[in-house]
Amino acid sequence: MAVLQIDIETYSSVDLIKSGVYRYVEAPDFEILLFAYAYDDEPVTVIDLTAFEDLPEQVRIDLTDPFVTKTAFNANFERTCISKHFGIECIPSQWRCTAVHALALGLPGSLGGVAEVLKLDAQKDTKGKNLIKYFSVPCKPTKVNGQRTRNYPHHDTDKWADYVGYCRQDVVVERAIRERLERYPVPYREWQLWALDQKINDSGVRLDPVLIRAAIDCAAQYSGRLTSAAKELTGLDNPNSLPQLKAWLADRGLETPDGLGKEFMPVLLDAAPDAESKRMLELRQEMGKTSNSKYDAMLRTICSDDRVRGILQFCGANRTWRWAGRIVQMHNLPQNHIDDLELAREVLRSGDFDLLEMLYGSPPFVLSQLVRTALLPSEGSRFIVSDFAAIEARVIAWLADEMWVLDVFQSHGKIYEATAARMFNVPFESIAKGHDNYRYRAPGKVATLACGFGGGKAALEKMDKSKEIDPEQYDPLVRQWRNANPNIRKLWYRAEEAAMEAVRTKGTVKLAHGVQYRYAGGTLFADLPSGHSLAYPQAAIKPDTKFNKDGLIFFAQDDRGKWSAQRTWGGTLVENLVQAIARDCLAESLLRLDDAGYRIPLHVHDEVVLDVPSGTGSVEEVTEIMSRPIDWAPGLPLKAAGFECEFYQKD
Hints:
Blueprint: E1 2-11, H1 16-19, H2 21-24, E2 31-39, E3 45-48, H3 57-62, E4 68-72, H4 75-86, E5 95-97, H5 98-104, H6 111-118, H7 128-135, H8 157-181, H9 188-203, E6 205-207, H10 209-234, H11 242-251, H12 265-271, H13 275-287, H14 293-301, E7 307-308, E8 312-317, E9 322-325, H15 341-350, H16 353-360, H17 363-370, E10 375-376, E11 381-388, H18 391-400, H19 403-409, H20 415-424, H21 441-451, H22 457-463, H23 474-484, H24 486-505, E12 508-512, E13 515-520, E14 523-527, E15 533-536, E16 540-544, E17 549-557, E18 563-568, H25 570-595, E19 599-604, E20 607-613, H26 619-627, E21 640-645
Parallel strand pairs: 1-4, 4-5
Antiparallel strand pairs: 1-2, 2-3, 6-7, 6-10, 8-9, 11-20, 11-21, 12-13, 13-14, 14-15, 16-17, 17-18, 19-20
Helix pairs in contact: 6-8, 7-8, 10-13, 10-14, 10-15, 12-13, 15-16, 18-19, 18-24, 18-25, 20-21, 20-23, 21-22, 21-23, 24-25
């Protein structure tokens, strides 16, 4: 099958980074400027569409030919732009994405980053960023360009020649990356799943623009009230200015740290020398809660049909292959705890912000509770929302053969109560509301959530969000949980030993349930029962001075995007395995639900959101599909629960 490698350069007045490609191509001035391509190993051709050059007829035909594989680095961008510009359908199953292939192998998500890590002869042209800024985004009027809103090729022919060369080089680099990665292919089933992911992103999810704009207006009004109150209290021109505020507080005898961040607020409030200082700190604290980023992102990205698209990144968490959120981050939405969500959202939509505050309290709190409700089903449809019950606890117990946990999930499913009973050696039946032993449920729950991947006191403290546990009990609880789950504890050390043995011997070491560690070409792979593999590039064994023993390292991008050595151990390796297998369970459900005719506008972690026409489908059918056994995971007990709603929410 022929391979057609593609890279394009485009123009749009919409900000691609902030608004996403689907909103980007809706701009009236969107166009493809340069179209670079190469078949297989043939030379790269660049078509200058600004010079009225035509795309060859054969290339046009091949863009929709199922027997020609189209490839690009971040193929979603090329697919979407080409579909819009040429008015054709770029079917995802005919495409392959080199960026996804790189992410699947634990490599960076950028073209230049991958080429650099792989030490390819072909490297990305470093002039690109400035050329893109010059030709592909609107320009600010200057003395040089007058009132020009964008730069055309004739405004700087030398730069344009460089841009053509840059586009050509991107195809060269993309092809070199693809050829290097071909020795470690992505399984065909994952490409099927990527095609479904593209279908989900192309379709998107409907938004409520009235609610979104009302939320933004409400937040702005409340922020203005806080600022006015702060001005009146302090006499400052701009109480939002950190230097002005620090100087004002210093004059009143309160020295403050540089950032005045929320982590310092409890101490500062206690140290406030007078009522005015304390009130100003409270206002500052409240100002910090008025962030409207989710609603702002929705408004920036909403398309002409009131849908937001492209908010899921396939293999975005490349250590585990889980999806990541993009543009409108749906993976960290606050839960909703307001009793009458429908009334609250209607009051917000009406614009009666005073009534909203009177009924529900502080606007930042209410707005955060209503973020989910901005997502709507299509006209004449409703959402069916379904998620797996305790999926990670089920997977780790299955992987470790922690049989008592599997027995719980195959029977009553009350894992928190069962764990507490085992930890504190009390009857399971006694951990019920009204009984004195019910007090053990909270530590049982927190320990279950915090300790599965080797977490200790710090993990318990972080997971104990309601502060129901005496901090003095954190260390004993860790020991009690580990004693109650000896096979899970053993799994951490078995995983670490297996991974290190694979690196030492440059071979393959089996772990459990189809999981094995395999070393090949400088990379440590964790082969999963589903058929794909997690990758740890440049894996090696190095002395770990902290624990005075040998330890496992691999290379990955750190928080600053730098490619650097990372240490890992058995608990983290097991966490990667569990999250990856849980992801694969979700992937199976997505494919099954799609086959059953359900439309999937969104999924988040272990939850699916389905857009289902009235009179069709059911919660029972959806949960049955998600609870079905999986061939590659015999004995893994899956269970899903769901509900219907007229707008997105947590049950």
